[in-house]
Amino acid sequence: MTLKTYRKKRNFRTTAEPSGERVKRPKGPSLIYVVQKHQARSLHYDFRLEWKGVLLSWAVPKGPSLDPSVKRLAAPVEDHPIEYADFEGVIPEGEYGGGTVMVWDLGTWTPEVPDVDAALEKGDLKFTLKGTKLKGSWVLVRTRGFPPGSGRTSWLLIKHRDRYASTDDVTVSKPRSVASKRMLAQIAGDGGGDVRKAAAGDP
Ligand code: MN
Q1: Which residues have beta carbons under 5 A from ligand 1 (an ion)?
Q2: Domain limits at 194?
Q3: How confident is the model at residue 153 (pLDDT cuts 50, 70, 90)?
Q4: Which one, 29, 66, 127, 157, has least CB within 10 Å?
Q5: Number of structural domains the chain divides into
Q6: Within a domain: residue 194?
Q7: pLDDT above 90: residue 150
Q8: According to the model, what pLDDT value does residue 2 have?
Q9: How far is the centre of ligand 1, averaged over its atoms, from the C-alpha of 59 (Å)?
Q10: How far apart (Å, rounded) are the C-alpha atoms in residues 160 and 196?
Q11: What is the Å distance from ligand 1's center to 67 Cα?
């Protein structure tokens, strides 16, 4: 768990993203959970869980599904700083991840396993989310890799069956920022970004 890769990919004189130098953590034992909708080269949802001083991160191309029969591909990406959970705005074109970022959901998470590190190692992390849009029990499970035979590790994000499970497509029914209520196009417009490109990510 280190921010070395995160910092290497970014020029903090150009992007407004946090460098993670200032460690800012809310008080209390709760662990942060955030999903950031990110219209970059392609649209995806960055799923992040606070663990040991960073945000463990996965890029979920189709976004989370509340339907337990639907498995969503989650590609592991570099750890992000805790402060990143608050980041909503425009990453300049030409920079890593250039495009528009929305705080799509934010809250806390609780492991459902006694040992998170062991669960990550094993590739089977069960947890409970307490967000605005996503709640209840979920699992991230590591698979053989996608595409098959590529040797690349990937994970699947799956909703467990509980009272928060649903066939409602939450990415369509709840498209707005939980931080500002804005759509992607508005965030891009306010931040001097590419409005047309961002709008392509709005339902
Ligand atoms: Mn991203």
Answers
A1: 38, 46
A2: 30-199
A3: confident
A4: 29
A5: 1
A6: yes
A7: no
A8: 82
A9: 6
A10: 36
A11: 23
